Amino acid sequence: MATILAIDGHPDPASLTAQLAASYAAGAGPGATLLTLRDLDFDLTLRTGYRTPQDLEPDLFRAQALLEQADHVAVFTPLWWGSVPALLKGFFDRTLERGWAFRYKENGMPEGLLAGRTGRLAVTSDSPRWYLPIVGDSTVKQVKGRTLEFCGIKPTKVTRYADVRGRSEADIAAWIRGAADLGAADAARPAVVRPARELAAR
Fold first, then answer.
1. Which of 2, 73, 106, 178 is least crowded, fewest Cβ atoms below 10 Å from its Cβ?
2. What is the pLDDT of residues 31-69, one digit of tens each?
3. Coiled-coil region(s) at which residues (predicted)?
4. Cα 149 to the chain's mean position, in Å?
């Protein structure tokens, strides 16, 4: 069984995103962890970029430990302004530190230090699914390609919950039930044996 880390990136506990993340984690079984970002205590802002160190809060140290332990990382987020909520973006900025989640090789190319893990990105949106590629699908490109896979978490599959405003209560309930099945399927994958990794200086 794979060790699952589900990350709920929505600031509202009553949101569809939060319900989907909770259902997914429950379906994944007792070995899964649901990391609810709105319950963490940390500064969202990377104050000086990477120019000077910024100490991690205890909740972010725990988040890094959970990422280290995970075989599979599932991120649940709404699409807001072609991106993600500030809560999730701040979590990425602060937690995925250079030298811990990625580094640059001598030739200038990036190397993901969280390799050996797979991912899933679940995105809710009021926009219909057909519309998102027309406007660039920026949230998926940002989180899947330029964040998770940049750090070595790949392949990352995408699950969409689109046109939320136009959905019936029955549709929403089916989505939430289906998220549990998705969690169970992801957890059923074999656990990954990863060699110890050498971290670059932070």
1. 106
2. 999 999 999 999 999 999 989 999 999 999 999 999 999
3. none
4. 11
Question: What are the tokens at 135?
Answer: 């406007």
Task: Report the Cα 188 to chain-centroid distance in Å.
Answer: 19
Region of 16 please: left (phi>0), alpha (psi -120 to 50) or beta.
alpha
C-alpha dist (Å) from residue 51 to 64, 95, 98, 111: 21, 16, 11, 20
Fold observed for domain 4-187: Rossmann fold (3.40.50)
The CA–CA distances, whole Å, from 17 to 58, 72, 160 equal 25, 19, 11
pTM beyond 0.90, yes or no: yes
Rounded to 10°, the helix 16-28/169-187 angle is: 40
Tell me the domain boundaries of the chain. 4-187
pLDDT exceeds 50 at position 202: no
pLDDT value of position 199: 52
